[in-house]
Specification:
The complex is a heterodimer of chains A (about 1050) and B (about 475). Chain A has about 1050 residues and is of the alpha+beta class. Chain A contains 36 helices and 24 strands. In chain A, the strands form six sheets. In chain A, strands 4, 6, 7, 9, 14, 15, 16 and 19 form an eight-stranded antiparallel β-sheet that branches. The radius of gyration of chain A is 36 Å and the shape is globular. Chain B has about 475 residues and is α/β, with parallel strands linked by helices. Chain B has a single domain, classed as Alkaline Phosphatase, subunit A (3-Layer(aba) Sandwich), CATH 3.40.720.10. In chain B, about 35% of the residues lie in helices and about 15% in strands. In chain B, strand 2 and strand 3 form a beta hairpin. The longest helix of chain B has 25 residues. Chain B is globular. Chain B starts with a helix and ends in a 15-residue tail after the last strand. The chains are: A alpha+beta (about 1050), B alpha/beta (about 475). Chains A and B meet through helix 14, helix 27, helix 29, helix 30 and helix 31 of A and helix 1, helix 8 and helix 9 of B.
């Protein structure tokens, strides 16, 4: 079964097996021209399909069982004629002698053909009957042992109990066991003690955190959007969903359906919608000048690639530009799967800062609770106001009749008012109490909409100084009266004074009202234009509001107090339009305005629809009072009532209204600050999907409906043919791949490699499983268990196979250097996250707060700035420095350096298998990164505080904590000698001791002897660098 | 094939150390460890046994990448007929409906903006260069210009990623990591592949540009920094002297050797060796960046900027020093060429910073006899357009991205000096003769390094990936 064709080191007595021996050769050497790709196929011959390979074509047949002479394939691969020889010389492919022999023997033996193993449904084969089954703990071991027997090997002894508990604790939680846990395990003689430990670890919330880390790689999760700008985004609600899913042991089928199509489930819960963030974790491009359609296609391709890699173990992306060269996936089929993921109402151009639509607010339970509370309070206040309504009316009528009809006074909304220019024969800004900064070119006053107004002609405008500076994240409102003499001209602006200059401005263009928010014209700007022109030559009132949401929908326009219909002509602002060096101009900017303007009000918030209506009332309160109540407009009446409530009503009425206002603002602020998460959504009208010729976004071919590749079972009958149906199809019991791929990935987690080593490719170019029946058994068992994830983990870690010692005899090293036969336990360097988390854990620094926004642990200065220009790394302080590594802020273009050095994936694309290297840069990081130096010295401090005054005891205790075993005498000798030598150095140079023990921000215990602490720090640092400590043994 | 090689490589190590620990015994192993402290023990990473598969012309490559896309129209492309068309609309027959970026595709007008800089011919080869490059002009006869580079991407991120990794989307190994993977390292104290950054501007860079993609991370480029440690975490923490570190490392090695004896895992011996190499880097890198031994003439040549870490000039000098120490691939990135607006002012400033040290590096390599086996490449990710972006005045204009042609140059190992390849139309818009694709350039770089670009592959996701995808032809006309 275990087969060393590649090394040519064996002499198999077994028959040639097509699936094991032959298909890999045909796939790798022949399929490019004689495989699934129709366009590239030569002479009509397919060697991936039995019918074609055995078919008589022009009197010839490629493969004739047991007849080498008649088999053209054999003639050609053994030909000495360069023109005849296959593969042809220019293909870059060549058959090895061993491969030619295998093909030859296969034909001689009858050319038995079987389907590719991975496309057949996994079934539980009968367990092998073994003479000596005592070693076996569960079914896994039967398959492994049978295989070892065939290779004349024996399993290794069980690992030392200390090694075993450290191994399983690190494997299930990413953290080492405490000495107390080790002792408890050693002293408990119950036969089920190991199982009990496993159950305890599976129940620990650390389990979910540890498992999530791997899933984040697969899901290309990050805290930034990637590509050039790589601005921040907020997907941690999805990350926390994953942790919770593992901890609550969400069955893998639900885990699948919710992440792929949770939004399409009936009455989808908030959590089910959050889960769909999986397929929004791909990168998003916000670079200026990109063509949105191009990247919208890239996002869908990423979804297809990632989803099919993670669930199907298929390299579907190879069929983007042409039929798959090795696996039976047509290009059209790629686009059928593409169609499932192509209906998201999204733009190819991502927002530079924060999440890009579609997204939802995703309150956590306490936040949901707070929202409910606020809503209840709002309702209660509203009903209180209704109760007080009668009293309000009565007192207001009484007040109205009491007011002196001749008095002149007014009131308007002042909350957030930053500028108010009434133009009543002066340029005084009532909001700022200044009038000295104005620079009038020439602007005479005349009677206006409200008192006097100011007239603009011959290019005159008012420069109102450095005020009303707003940017793309700011809320603001501008209100003014105008009477236009001309169809064009800028009403108000803070901009570079040129047509389509940067900044914000309101203007008339051919009589239409325009709102412009511009960073760079055309590719970084918002423009809205009214559907109808403003009436010329008459006074009208305009209010525009912007809610800081960076989308055109965040702009509202009101004319004469009523919403005014606007067309969005540009909707892509990505950088701020605030121009600190320009001034606020009235009557000019992009082009001069001709006409009159009056009563300009600017607010630093977006006023509500109701407020916009009040601001547009031209009449003062006293003027309204002089109008008979039945003759007043609704707006006038509202303004009057508002004024009355705030200034003259009884305290209880006023308080109720004020309190409602306050509660509503509070709710809005609270809601706006809730975490959001990008999610999947379906457009009402599905986007049409076309085959893209050569994979190019601007080269559409035939239209295709959604569908799954024909090589697989069809979508189940009882599900819709949409993303939800696709998800249900993935986890349908007939599916040959999903369970195998998932089980293989879980296996990989423990043994460092899957039973199929090509975790990402189960196709014909992929690796053949080392133990096919075992993989099938695991897959079938996984499904039968109801996709019980924790049960599968438990099955593996309780197997005798897993529990073997990982020591390697020279013989095993020679026979099986990669441990494919599993005649020993796994020995692997820990993943990046576990190495850092363990160091923090041992030192006692680890802050086990779960979930929430990502944090910024130590990083060398300037790493972001030197390549990302603007942003500097905002390092956290205090407890946030010591969170588990999966909570570290992940910037894709400059990922946390030590993590990357230790082989973490960059999260730019889906990765289901990390490399595991051994480099000098890793040594430098573990020795010198302040993270590890600080951990070492706090670990040392802890030992001095917890283990008494004897350095020998402090050292051995540190060693025990880090390795779960007692040091041997020769180890004790080395460590103690090291301590004493360095102690002398530090005693002689107290300053160096002081420096070392001040590494990092954590407080130093001043009671401890600095030289001793420094010396012990060198020892704990050495311990944290030990191969044994950074390795799961 | 590559998996097999990787496997064999692991095998060799394992056999070596299996013999080391079992046959020779621990004492002998300790001797081995002692020996490994000597400078002559090969560390780093061996290459694949099949490579180099071609004659090695370039033992080293310095790639001076000019990030942001320098304007070929203002530096290299002499198009005298444009002046008579100043301000006229770019004819549709030239643009041919080709796509533009979102920054200018909505422009109502595409007025022709001839360069405001003067061009002259230089050297025996008569290469045309703009007045912005007086120093480059002096080495014109050493250079091979390619006027007809073209690419597929029109935005920075995908275009730079394409030049560096042969694909627009993230995830592929960079040029330098392919070379490290195929050819290994010749230096036991320094990485085989070093990246350095200079310049400023709107255009960020990304770790993936020197990353290893799907290759193991040990093949990634090591970024040499100007701030803090030149290599991350190179310095011992405050309070740990070099001798304390040496002692700790000896103790660590002794502990790990005990573990190796018990466990037999060859990975442990690799780890011991890596710690030793880390220690050697702690000496060799500061020696590398210590310029106190450089004579005054060096700074006359490169300019005074070469004393300031982080400048382009400093990086040029560092590139020479890295080459002297056998570092195979030096990837420089200089930012600040993205001149959409106010191009004349910005490009003048940019050339002031870069022209002298660029020429200095070539001259310096030449005078030291290194140029004959060092390949130097100068170029960006795409070109710039002949039509004006934004406001056009007699003195001012801007240029948008232009992927259909751009200019680069190469010199040194295996390159035919004093040549110009390719020709564009009168607008430097479309290629008239001898197009050279990014894949062709990358195929040529590998070729000169002794690698057939079609043979250096890595199997990932079932495919035998290579730097040049399924494309790329060596630029024969550029070869000496």
């Amino acid at each position: 079964m275990f087969h060393m064709i590649a090394t040519g080191a064996e002499e198999p007595a077994r028959l040639v097996d097509f699936d094991r021996d032959i298909r890999p050769i045909l796939s790798d050497k022949c399929f490019t021209c004689h495989g699934p790709d129709e366009q590239k196929r030569v002479s009509g011959l397919r060697l991936d399909v039995r019918e074609s390979a055995f078919e008589v074509r022009d009197g010839k047949t490629a493969i004739v069982p047991k007849d080498l002479i008649a088999s053209v394939l054999h003639q050609r691969i053994t030909s000495t004629d360069a023109d005849q020889k296959m593969p042809p010389g220019d293909s870059g492919q060549e058959l090895a002698e061993a491969e030619i022999q295998l093909l030859t023997r296969w034909i001689q033996e009858g050319a038995k053909w079987t389907e590719h193993w991975a496309f057949l449904r996994p079934e539980k084969h009968e367990l092998p009957q073994l003479e000596d089954q005592q070693w076996c703990n569960n079914e896994i071991d039967h398959w492994v042992l049978e295989n070892l027997h065939q290779e004349n090997l024996k399993p290794s002894a069980e690992a030392d109990q200390r090694t075993l508990i450290r191994r399983v604790t690190l494997d299930l939680t990413g953290l080492p066991p405490t000495p107390a846990e080790v002792e408890a395990f050693l002293t408990d003689n119950s036969p089920t003690v190991y199982e009990a430990v496993v159950d305890r670890l599976l129940a620990s919330p650390r389990f979910g955190e540890h498992m999530a880390a791997t899933w984040l790689d697969a899901a290309r999760y990050a805290d930034t959007s990637g590509y050039q700008n790589d601005g921040p985004r907020s997907m941690w609600r999805w990350r926390d969903w994953v942790i919770e899913a593992f901890n609550s042991n969400l069955p893998f089928d639900q885990f699948t359906v919710e992440q792929i199509a949770g939004d399409l489930l009936e009455n989808a819960s908030l959590n089910q919608r959050i889960a769909t963030g999986f397929n929004r974790n791909h990168r998003g491009n916000s670079e200026g000048g990109i063509i949105a359609e191009e990247y919208q296609v890239e996002y869908v391709v990423d979804r297809v690639d990632t989803t099919t890699t993670v669930w199907l173990g298929l390299t579907m992306g190879c069929a983007r530009c042409h039929d798959h060269k090795y696996d039976p996936i047509r290009q059209t089929e790629f686009y059928k799967v593409f169609a499932y993921f192509n209906n998201v109402p999204e733009s190819g151009r991502a927002l530079k800062e924060g999440n890009s639509p579609p997204m939802i607010r995703a309150p956590r339970p306490p936040e949901e609770e707070r929202l409910r509370e606020l809503d209840q309070q709002i309702q209660a206040t509203e009903s209180r106001i209704r109760e007080l309504d009668k009293a309000l009316r009565a007192t207001q009528m009484a007040w109205e009749s009491s007011v002196d009809a001749a008095s002149e006074f007014d009131w308007s909304i002042t909350d957030g008012l930053v500028n108010h220019l009434a133009f009543d024969l002066s340029l005084y800004d009532q909001a700022r109490k200044v009038d000295s900064v104005f620079d009038v070119t020439s602007s005479p006053y005349s009677l206006g909409a409200v008192g006097h107004s100011i007239k603009f002609q011959n290019g005159s405008f008012i420069s109102a100084g450095d005020t009303a500076l707003f940017g793309y994240m700011d809320k603001f409102s501008i209100a003014l009266w105008l009477r236009a003499d001309d169809a064009n001209g800028t009403l108000i602006s803070r901009m570079t004074p040129a047509e389509e200059g940067a900044g914000y401005y309101l203007q008339l263009r051919d009589g239409l009202l325009q709102v412009n928010l511009i960073n760079r014209w055309l590719d970084d700007a918002i423009r809205l234009e009214s559907r109808q022109p403003l009436p010329p030559n008459e006074w009208c009132h305009v209010t525009m509001t912007y809610d800081g949401s960076r989308v055109a929908r965040g702009v509202q326009v009101y004319v004469n107090g009523q919403p005014f219909e606007m067309n969005i002509t540009l909707d892509r602002i990505n950088q701020t339009f605030a121009l600190p060096l320009e001034t606020l101009r009235i009557g000019g900017g992009a082009s001069p305005f001709r006409g009159a303007i009056d009563d300009v009000r600017i607010y630093n918030r977006d006023v509500s629809t109701g407020e916009a209506e009040l601001i547009a009332v031209a009449q003062s309160i006293s003027e309204i009072l002089r109008i008979k109540p039945e003759m007043r407009t609704a707006a006038q009446q509202k303004k009057l009532t508002e004024h009355f409530i705030l200034n003259h009503a009884a305290a209880d009425i006023r308080e109720a209204h004020l309190s409602l206002h306050k509660l509503r603002s509070e709710r809005r602020v609270f809601e706006e600050n809730l975490p959001t998460v990008m999610v999947m959504e379906e457009m009402l009208t599905p986007r049409k999907t076309h085959v893209l010729i050569r994979g190019q976004y601007d080269n559409p071919g035939e239209e295709v409906p959604p569908g799954v590749p024909a090589v697989f079972p069809p979508i189940p009958e009882n599900v819709p043919n949409n993303r939800l149906g696709f998800a249900r199809w993935l986890v349908s019991p007939q599916h040959p791949l999903t369970a195998r791929v998932a089980a293989n990935r879980i296996w990989q987690k423990y043994f460092g490699q899957g039973l199929v080593r090509t975790t990402e490719d189960f196709g014909s170019q992929g690796d053949r499983p080392s133990h096919p029946e075992l993989l099938d058994w695991l897959a079938a068992e996984f499904m039968e268990s109801g996709w019980n994830v924790k049960a599968l983990h438990k099955l593996i870690v309780t197997s005798a196979t897993y529990r073997q010692s990982s020591a390697i005899s020279p013989e095993l090293l020679r026979l099986d250097p990669d441990n494919r036969l599993l005649a020993r336990g796994p020995r692997r360097r820990l993943p990046a996250e576990a190495i850092r988390d363990q160091a923090l854990f041992l030192s006692g620094l680890l802050n086990e707060q779960r979930g929430g926004p990502s944090v910024n642990p130590y990083q060398p200065d300037g790493l972001w700035k030197e390549i990302a220009t603007i942003t500097d790394y905002p390092q956290s302080h205090g407890a946030d420095l010591y969170r588990r590594s999966l909570y570290s802020f992940w910037k894709r273009t400059v990922a946390p350096p030590t993590m990357v050095t230790l082989d973490a994936s960059s999260r730019e694309a889906c990765v289901v298998q990390r490399s595991r290297t051994n480099t000098p840069l890793q040594a430098l990081a573990l020795m010198n990164d302040v993270t590890f130096v600080e951990a070492a010295r706090v670990f040392a401090q802890r030992m001095m505080m917890e283990s008494g005054d004897d350095p020998a005891r402090q050292i051995s205790q540190a060693f025990v904590m880090a390795t779960a075993r007692e040091p041997r005498p020769e180890e004790v000798a080395i460590l103690q000698r090291s301590y004493e030598r360095n102690l002398t150095v530090f005693e002689r140079n107290p300053e160096t001791a002081r420096q070392l023990i001040h590494s990092g921000e954590f407080a130093v215990n001043a009671d401890l002897n600095p030289a001793k602490l420094a010396a012990l720090t060198t020892v704990t640092s050495l311990i944290l660098n030990l191969d044994e400590v950074v390795t799961k043994e | 094939m590559t998996i097999l090689n990787d496997h064999l490589f692991a095998e060799n190590r394992r056999h070596f150390f299996a013999r080391g620990s079992q046959a020779l015994g621990l004492a002998a192993l300790a001797g081995l460890l002692q020996e490994s402290k000597a400078a002559d023990v090969p560390a780093g990473t061996p290459g694949l046994s099949d490579f180099p598969d071609l004659p090695v012309k370039a033992k080293r490559i310095i790639y001076m990448f000019q990030s942001g896309a320098p304007s070929q129209l203002d530096l290299f492309e002499h198009k005298p007929t444009l002046e008579s068309m100043r301000g006229e609309e770019l004819p549709d027959s030239v643009r041919q409906g080709q796509r533009l970026t979102g920054m200018t595709s909505g422009q109502k007008s595409f007025p022709i903006a001839p360069t405001k800089f003067k061009f002259k011919q230089y050297g025996a080869s008569g290469a045309w260069l703009s007045e912005l490059l007086p120093h480059t002009a002096k080495i014109a006869d050493d250079l091979c210009f390619i006027k007809t580079m073209h690419t597929e991407a029109i935005n920075h991120d995908p275009a730079i990623t394409f030049v560096q990794t042969g694909a627009q989307q993230a995830g592929r190994p960079s040029l330098g990591s392919w070379l490290s993977y195929g050819l290994g390292s010749e230096n036991s104290d320094l990485p085989a592949f070093v990246a350095m950054i200079s310049g400023s501007g709107d255009q960020p860079l990304y770790d993936r540009l020197w990353g290893s993609g799907f290759l193991p991370t040990r093949y990634a480029g090591v970024k040499f920094r100007s701030l803090g440690d030149p290599v991350l975490y190179l310095s011992n923490p405050p309070g740990i002297s070099s001798s304390v570190r040496r002692g700790m490392l000896d103790d660590l090695a002794a502990m790990n050797a005990l573990k190796l004896k018990e466990s037999g895992d060859p990975e442990i011996s690799t780890r011991i060796a890596q710690y030793e190499m880390a220690y050697r880097m702690q000496t060799s890198v500061p020696e590398l960046t210590d310029l106190s031994g450089e004579p005054a003439s060096t700074f006359d040549l490169y300019g005074e900027d070469a004393r300031k870490p982080g400048t382009f000039a400093w990086n040029c000098l560092m590139a020479r020093r890295l080459c002297e120490r056998g570092v195979r691939f030096v990837q420089m990135f200089h930012r600040g060429w993205d001149q959409h607006l106010e191009l004349p002012r910005n490009i003048t400033a940019q050339c002031k910073l870069t022209d002298q040290p660029t020429a200095a590096l070539v001259l310096d390599l030449k005078q030291r006899g290194l140029l004959q086996d060092t390949l130097v490449v100068w170029g960006g990710e795409f070109g710039r357009a002949v039509y004006c972006q934004g406001k056009m005045t007699p003195d001012d204009y801007g240029r948008d991205h232009h992927p259909r042609c751009f200019s680069i140059w190469m010199t040194g190992a295996g390159i035919k000096p004093g040549t110009t390849i390719g020709e564009t139309d009168d607008f430097s818009y479309n290629i008239v003769r001898d197009p050279v694709h990014v894949h062709d350039l990358n195929a040529t770089l590998l070729h000169l390094a002794g690698v057939n670009h079609k043979k250096l592959t890595y199997k990932y996701q079932g495919r035998h990936f290579r730097l040049t995808d399924v494309h790329g032809e060596v630029i024969q006309a550029a070869l000496s």
